[in-house]
Amino acid sequence: MGKNICGGCTLIFGSLTAFDKHRVGGYKGFIYELAETGLPTGKILGERPSTRRCLTVEEIQALGMVQNDRGWWIEELTEAKREQLERLKQKKVAEIER
Known about the structure:
The protein is an alpha+beta fold. The chain has one domain (4-97). It is 32% helix and 30% strand. The protein has three helices and eight strands, in the order E-E-H-E-E-E-E-H-E-E-H. The strands form four sheets. Strands 1-2 form a two-stranded antiparallel ribbon. The mean pLDDT is 92.
């Protein structure tokens, strides 16, 4: 399990998936004029501001994430996820045994 430290909020995440879940909102970008075909013409009409932000601890917890014994935020291993991992493990073992 790798450590992922957020430069914005300084929280530590136990996986890239958990890290990605704590970042929400849209990226800054250009707004382009569209041709009748619906495709951009290349003419810039304006700029869309960034709305990216880190979730609060309360919002992270609401996603079902918990802190492990190191204090890293991780996705809680639910029974459904545990069963899914077991099925994947059994499938991999079956492939190896062929």
